[in-house]
Write a structure and sequence with these properties.
Layout (H helix, E strand, L loop, with lengths): L2 H20 L14 H7 L5 E5 L4 E3 L12 E5 H6 L3 E2 L6
Parallel strand pairs: 2-4
Antiparallel strand pairs: 1-2, 1-3
Length: about 90
């Protein structure tokens, strides 16, 4: 085994030990996708509603051209989209 292989193995063991010893549980906020914008707004009245494109892994705001377009998307709350690690699309920003 080469030195690089040993270092990778030791790093993986150290990472596993840190994760097991920390006791912290990681939980993801589940997405609540909605078919209609009004449903999403009722779900999160104090948050902005965005159009989430599942295939591309991005979300669009109301000011963007691709908002409400596409078959692989749904309306979700902005906070939930960010917590689920979806990124903001830069296309069509005005």
């Amino acid at each position: 085994m080469s030195w690089s292989g040993i270092r990778r193995g030791v790093g993986g063991i150290a990472l596993a030990a840190i994760m097991a010893g920390s006791g912290a549980e990681v939980s993801a906020t589940p997405l609540s996708p909605f078919r209609y914008e009004a449903q999403a707004q009722r779900h999160c009245p104090h948050d902005q509603v965005v159009w989430l494109d599942f295939r591309k892994g991005v979300y669009y705001t109301r000011a963007q051209k691709r908002y409400r377009q596409g078959f692989d998307g749904s309306f979700v709350c902005l906070g939930e989209a960010r917590d689920a690690r979806y990124r903001r699309s830069l296309l069509g920003l005005r």
